[in-house]
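Thread: "does anyone have the structure for this chain?"

Original post by V.I.:
We have the sequence but no experimental structure in hand. Need at least a predicted one for the grant figures.
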Amino acid sequence: MPNISEILTLPEGRTLEFKQDLSSLKPIMKSLIAFANTAGGTLIIGKRDDGEIIGVSDVLKAEEQLANAIADHISPRLMPEIEIASYDQVSLLVVRVSHWRGPFFLKSQGEEEGVYIRLGSTNRLAGPEMLNELKRAINNVSFDELACPACDKASLDMKKIEVEFAKVGKKVTNKTLETLKILVPYNGKLVCSNAGILLFGKSDVRREYFSNSEVRCARFQGESRKDFIDQLDIEGSVLDALAEVPKFIKRNTQVASSIEGVKRVDIPEYSPVIIREILTNALAHADYSIQGMHPRVAIFSNRMEIESPGMFPYGYTLENFFTGVSHVRNKVIARILRELNFMEEWGTGYQRICETCEKENYPKPIWEEVGATIRVCLPSKSTIKPSAGLMQAKASHDLSLRQQEILSMLQGDEPLSTKVIGEKLKTSVAGRTLRKDLQFLLAKGYILMLGKGRSTTWKAVDI
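Reply from O.Q.:
Generated one for you, tokens below.
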């Protein structure tokens, strides 16, 4: 666990927030509730929005006030660890909250209206879909294994099921459909599970119940979403998307060539192995309970983005993903994809992606939680040149596209002020967001902070 000095240099995010003092308790209660419901987190009191560490006066009294407020305002009973930490001759309150069975809520708003979750660095009131997902997670039930009551076996494309399983040398019986939870019991009869419809439902049935499973693909001109070059909406099942999306990507990306010995070797702009891993995970772990959100694939001149509806599962963090800890959102879909050899061992996908990047000299993809969506950005191989900056290549794993833009901007000889950096960004951002990005780059060792206060400037570290 990082020490207090390291934590103070990090930007706010899914598991970290700073508050100046206890003058406004309700936002603090919301943060603690959101941490407990989502993935745990740390709240530090005594740091201002501008980054200045001011500490907490009469810290023992503040600690008692905070403990009483938690008991009075949060239900069920939440018992975080509250510590007093010293930093640069001031005292801070450090509140560590574990992810735990809830859902926790603000008493004044009630159990249905007072549940908060963490999206990025913000606290959001959990709407009906997110609240249902949270309750399912607490009960260890996945959305895809729930019954779709109006759909029985006649709603399934049995020919498709037989063909797909025949590819891996397996025969399908009624027992197979029950064992794999394609069919599940409901009120004394067998009906389709949500996974059964998503994977093998007849077209009209799937469109009626899961129109949000349609994968929307687009190729844009340049680096923004302004002008389309090509577009395709894949209306088939999850399995159809796994077959058709790579074809769309292939026809909209470049292939270079090199000569090895006497043979010509094609080098695709994006590794098919990496695309397969990311796309399979995006579709297998999408939150199909969220209506109106679709899996998306967007191809630009300098990158490709694959988006999956749904935030990271409750209790799961990006760090868990990087270390190989597995958390399956859709248990039935994931199991069937394993049976059909689309997926291998859970938790090993990221390792295979890293190995492929290292072996084939591809830049590492960047994972981001953007609102209620997981986005994976794959930088184009053609944009990463050996002389274009070891710093950028090293940072591609750690940084968002905006942070990479800031880092590139600071490569010049002259340091830049925060104001100038904000003016130069292609897309304007709030001052607070920009300061978070700069503090994160500083903590990672990519940039230097020169001067203090309003005279502060920033410069990339020489390498």
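V.I.: this helps a lot. Confidence is low (pLDDT under 50) at residues 384-397.
O.Q.: and The radius of gyration is 25 Å.
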